[in-house]
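Lab meeting minutes (informal)
Scribe: AK
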Amino acid sequence: MATPSSLISSSNPVTNTDRPQRKKLRKKKTFPLAKQDHADLARQAQTWKSEAQQQIYSSKLLKALSHVTIGGDGGGPPPAPRRGRAVREAADRALAVTAKGRTRWSRAILTNRLKLKFRKQKRQRKKVRVLGRLVPGCRKQPLPVILEEATDYIAALEMQVRTMSALAELLSGGSSSGSGSAPTT
């Protein structure tokens, strides 16, 4: 019959030998990937030096920069820090698109742009929802319906303000002068 100490000592070496073997297997699996990454980087460095790649990047950069200058709010040029950041982001995006997502940095730039896009969409949906709550009867309507109703509602509110102002003028002017006739405007 085995003693408890002999069971413990016989079971421990088996578990200890399994762990280093797994680590060795993992290391063996990661080394070929690292060699492949180095080969890809070497090929990528050669393609970035080509004239054709330079032309592709230049055209994409010009297109991206034209969208940056056109895409302003229309009230004039944006402040210098915001404009500088927009130019840098446009240049990075153009470079990442030219790399076609073959490298980690290009995929990171492209996915971060997607995250920002979704964040902007979330902000836009929130603003649409708030506008829908402001306009009576538009709580769950789509954006085009909300915009159409909002423009009509704004015109109606402006008319209401003009009418109530005229009525207040009439009532305040009529009570101070004592006459019942309406003032001409």
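Next up, CB showed the second protein from the same session:
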Amino acid sequence: MAADGGSSPLQLPCVFSPKSRQYLALCAQDGRLRVWNTDSKTLQQEYVPSAHLSATCTCIAWGPCRTVKEGPQRKKRKSEAVPVEEKADLLAMGTAAGTVLIYSTVKGALHCTLQDGGHSAGVNCVQWHPEESLLYSGSDDTYIVEWDLQTGKTRSKWKADRAAVTSLCVSPDGKLLLSAGHVIKMWDLDTKEVYRKFTGHSTAVTTLRFATSRPPDSNGLYFLSGASHDRLLSVWQVREDGKDKNSVVSFTLTDEPQHIDLVTSNSKDEAVRLAVVCKDGQLHLFEHFLNGPCKKPLSPSCSVQMSDTRESPMPIPLLAAALVADTRTVLLAYGSHLQPVMERVVRTNLPSERHVCLTRDVQTSLSLSLDTAVSKVKTPMVNDKSKILIPGLPGHQAPVKGSEKRKKGSDTKEMSIAERLGEIDLSAALAEKEGPKGTASLQTDNFAVLLVQGLESNDANILNEKKLREDLIEFM
């Protein structure tokens, strides 16, 4: 999954917020959106769409940063400057159902749903316009839709190709749009007509990024592309004379790209910095001056792998990487999508070797990043000498042993009626004889009761009982 809002079925959508890189947004397979704070390394927000089971997130992209005033508003003198900051707010999520969800991190809720007049198949990529309130989406239905975010309706819709649209990218000045399936097309956003075509990938293109801002000279405009099952990143030059059919530079990778981040170049004297996370979990860092064609593919200046600290080390997959523009710092996200670990690594602190392996204890990092406010489970402080009382019966209670199941063919003899009479609670007789204190004992050998039951059942054991005979002789 590319950072530009493209998609890949092998990787769950994952992208850092622009500029400050303060947030990391991840979408799970069940449609849940989780936003992590990279500074505090805690879960900031979690959103579950109402129809999340049928609206699997396929791509995600942050909107342009908004200018937000810091602190509460109060009256200030004209000479005092109001502190402001640029903060990422809106997130666009494409779904397999063909809808586009706009989520607001400020409100912590869904901002709007883009659906009417849109796509009839799953959305593969979403891209924001850098200056206007517009959003572009590409789908399996081979169409590109231009959405007006102020009205929530389609502003324009056109057929991009005979194949599905798998990736989109808007130029820094907002005048050009790149779209790709198997063929890369550059569109003029004013006329919605094809400006250029680029061919070179044999599989579906999953990543498109502009490497330079558009200079006064059109020959200085570069962009890069990556495709599935392709271990090369291609760099293309947009020439004014139209002689730009082949890529001018290639970057070699160990596997197909999953996440890409770069710092664009504004002039020939400024190098392009590139960070690529591949499917195999490795990170490759590149730095190159784009000033024309290069015959040989370029190798990374540094490759980073991660492993745990066990006796038999196991690799830790890297999920995403971001380059901090003003410093030589690389922001890493690795581990699990459910609980990613975020870490800032300074390039100067890395070993001088071109291949670096960083060992980390993931379990310790996870325990340190657990936020009690998110889990909402608080453990009370309990003194070691305190006793805990639980509900129950007073005093000691002997365990109740369950009755054993009677086995078939056992030697246990059936009880006689006389023996059963000794265990029957004659409630009627007791009710008459018991006093208010209820201290009367059970009387199972009453003459009248035994005589009646013995005669009715014709049981010789009862009639021949010694006590019954003595009472009968005395009665006679």
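CB comment: Helices lie at 362-368, 372-375, 417-421, 427-433, 447-457, 460-463, 466-475.
No objections, moving on.
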